[in-house]
Amino acid sequence: MKKIFIILPLFLSGFLFSQKKPQKSPAKKGTVAKFNYHDEFRKISDEILTNGKAYDNLGELTKGVGPRFSATPGYAKAVEWAEKKFKEIGIDMIWRQEAKAPVWIRGKESLQIKAGNGDWKNIRMLSFGNSEGTGGKDLVGEIVLINSTSELNAMSIGQLKDKIVFVNVPMDPKIINTSDSYLQTAKSKLVSASIIAKTGAKALIIRSLTTANDDTPHAKMIYYEPEDKIKIPALSIGVRSADELEKIVKKQKVTAKINMTAESKGDTTNPNIIAEIQGKKDSKVIVLGAQLDSWDVGEGAVDDGTGVVQCMEVLRTLKALGYENNHTIRVVLYANSENGGQGREMYAAYVKKRDEKHIFALGTDAGGYSPRGFSLDMSPQRRRLVYPWKEYFLPYGVYDFDQTEAIQDISPLKKLDIPLAELVVDTQRYFDYHHSEQDTFDKVNKRELLLGAVAITQMIFMVDKNW
């Protein structure tokens, strides 16, 4: 028996080691080797959640640079900062693209109200961006309250002449998606200075478009029509002041005194900042977009410092992982998004003129909150290509691929038939801080910010691999 046990292992070992190593079956022509996307998603997530720089970069941008309103030293400082950060990542292709930007100076501003024969009371306020001022003189008039378009339409000719129109319309709390609620209110003709001016009114005051229950005023952009003979000043007040003012106006005559030195001083140029990692396979472009400018109040953290640093994080992560991208992956940090939008128009014109082939454009401009999905503004055929990717995103809490509008700085690219996508986040807190002095670094959660960067990088990876 012992001999058998000695011989048998020798026999088996000889048999086993005499076998040839199994040969890999040659891949069929035209097929791609199977790829483990779950593993690749995990590599991206691990890199960003462990080594991500987005939160630190946001701190630098908000605390080191601060407000970055168009045509100000703050914006010029942000441009230099962005170029420096791209170089630190190891990006070689960085350039500026000049776009027209209006020069608007807020100056000093004040609002006072007086009920009946009482004393003047100061109310916190913010001028609309690009609003005409009062030339530093007091503009005084009786306040007329309007709560709906039907009330406005019912006003007879002359009822609003020389009055100051006060519009107290809250964002609809029944609409779960706060971005939809904001847009619905923002597009109302009640908050249009041009339409109100046509009634003969001499100023417009609106309730801030916010979900917060505080007295912080939130800025809004004004658009005067070319045919406007008179450009009236417009301003916003906090929701608590708005509700209190409505109660007073319903009881007695209320007079307002507005003093604004806001003024426009023509146009200048501000640059978009563009950085890219060139494709190894072809020159087709996948573009990421975020706005570099911010309002002149606050620090521009959630709007849109978070988007800026998330786009940077995508490039940093791909570099750190040694990823060999098929297509060119480009980041555009847009100028003049808040008070004109010329930066996005300039980039779209650049793409059209050069006839550059863009296969995908993704934007992020809803704050650095927990990612929930992607809005796919593209043809049904393209959307169907993305849907099967859901299974890879689900472990990261990213599930919503049903929305179909991308409404930010990438939107002009839609005219060029470029598929668009926007990062969808939990926006319930976004409009608490939007366009206000409350938009500061401390409102951003580090983990939420990094998770958004994870989702964006994963989406860019999938498009690069499959399109």
Automatic annotation (TrEMBL):
Keywords: Carboxypeptidase, Endoplasmic reticulum, Glycoprotein, Golgi apparatus, Hydrolase, Lysosome, Metal-binding, Metalloprotease, Protease, Secreted, Signal, Zinc, Zymogen. This is Carboxypeptidase Q. Pfam families: Peptidase_M28 (PF04389). Gene3D superfamilies: 3.50.30.30, Zn peptidases. InterPro entries: CPQ, Peptidase_M28. It comes from Chryseobacterium viscerum. Homodimer. The monomeric form is inactive while the homodimer is active. The keyword Metal-binding applies. One of its GO terms (cellular component) is lysosome. Residues 272-449 form the Peptidase M28 domain. It is found in: Endoplasmic reticulum; Golgi apparatus; Lysosome; Secreted. GO terms for biological process: proteolysis. GO terms for molecular function: carboxypeptidase activity; metal ion binding; metallodipeptidase activity. Its main location: endoplasmic reticulum. Coiled coil: none annotated.
